[in-house]
Amino acid sequence: MQNALVVDGLIRKLWITESTTYCDHLLRLDRDSRYSRFGSAVADDFIREYVDATYRLNAVGHGFFVNGELRGAAELRPLGPALTREAEAALSIETPWQSHGVGSELLDRTLLAARNRGIKTLHMACLANNRRMQELARKFTAELSFDFGSVAGEVAAARPTPLSVLREFVADGHGFATAVLDVQSRLFRPV
Ligand SMILES: CC(C)(COP(=O)(O)OP(=O)(O)OC[C@H]1O[C@@H](n2cnc3c(N)ncnc32)[C@H](O)[C@@H]1OP(=O)(O)O)[C@@H](O)C(=O)NCCC(=O)NCCS
Question: Of 155, 98, 93, which Cα lies nearest the Cα of 123?
Answer without folding.
Answer: 155
